[in-house]
Design goal:
This protein has a single domain (4-122), classed as Trna Endonuclease, Chain: A, domain 1. The protein is 34% helix and 30% strand. It has five helices and six strands. It has a six-stranded mixed beta sheet. The longest helix is centred in the middle third of the chain and has 15 residues, at 61-75. The radius of gyration is 14 Å and the shape is globular.
Amino acid sequence: MCSAAATILHMKEEQVQAHFTSWLEERGWLDIVTSKRGVDVIAKRGAETLIAEVKGTTREPGLDTDTLMGQILRAMDGDEMTSYAVVVPEGLVGKVQRVPAEVRRRLDLTVYLVDDFGRMRRLEN
């Protein structure tokens, strides 16, 4: 029997980002900007702002996921109306979970996973 990670196809960062921005639009996020201010996605919904870093499948998933976490940490500025997220293919969930759930919770960092069919789900801490 194959593990879940083994069934995940390679998904480029651009594909992950496209699925995520479509998903955001379906939920009322407007004014979505990609690749600006050193982050991958900035979206607005009313007074709320969401800043997200996105990573696709890479040759160095551990290193690249660690880089992703560093990028989102640098983007955090303490604004109460801004939320932060990282978005990765489901096959990278184990790499994201190397940052303990309690740390992600304290940072109020949401992890979104995209499957092979472009479906998004939120990783529960």
